[in-house]
Write a structure and sequence with these properties.
Layout (H helix, E strand, L loop, with lengths): L1 H42 L1 E11 L2 E4 L6 E5 L2 E7 L7 E16 L4 E8 L2 E7 L5 E7 L4 E8 L1
Antiparallel strand pairs: 1-2, 1-3, 1-9, 3-4, 4-5, 5-6, 6-7, 7-8, 8-9
Length: 150
């Protein structure tokens, strides 16, 4: 009987500590990923790889290898698909102006903004590693993308 009580007590102690340990590992992993993204953004030398493109009610999955823009200190180069049948993609090759990056360490989110060509670009890196890029044109059109940075 004593062995059964001791075994039950041991199980009650071990299960919560194991759960706490797994939660801490998840938090540590998320923190490491956030700090990696933060360091990358601070260098102003990274690329955005799109997986999805959105425009109003339409969305389309796109191949990442063909939908990538590289941000390199002062310029942007690359190609991003659209959902517009008249204009299949937007090509970027221009100088960056008004680059800014804001870091929300408490929520582990990053906000990046800049202008290139006729586009105002905003990038949001969420705590779950999902990245959203929004392109706003001078004529009011908005195209959104979901992807990743690296």
């Amino acid at each position: 009987m004593k062995k059964l009580i001791l075994l039950t007590l041991l199980i009650y102690i071990a299960i919560p500590s194991q759960s706490f340990g797994q939660e801490q590992i998840k938090k540590d992993r998320a923190e490491a990923i956030y700090l990696g993204h933060k360091a990358l953004v601070e260098t102003q030398n990274f690329k955005f790889v799109a997986d999805w493109v959105f425009n109003n009610d339409t969305r389309k999955e796109v191949p990442g290898d063909l939908n990538t823009i590289r941000i390199n200190t002062s310029e942007v180069k690359g190609l991003l698909a659209t959902v517009d049948s008249d204009r299949k993609a937007i090509a970027f090759k221009g100088n960056i102006t008004n680059y800014s990056a804001q870091f929300n360490d408490d929520n582990q989110e990053i906000f990046i903004g800049f202008q290139v060509d006729n586009y105002s670009v905003s990038i949001e890196v969420k705590s779950n590693r999902t990245v959203f890029l929004s392109l706003n044109t001078t004529n009011g059109e908005t195209i959104k993308y979901k992807g990743s940075i690296n």
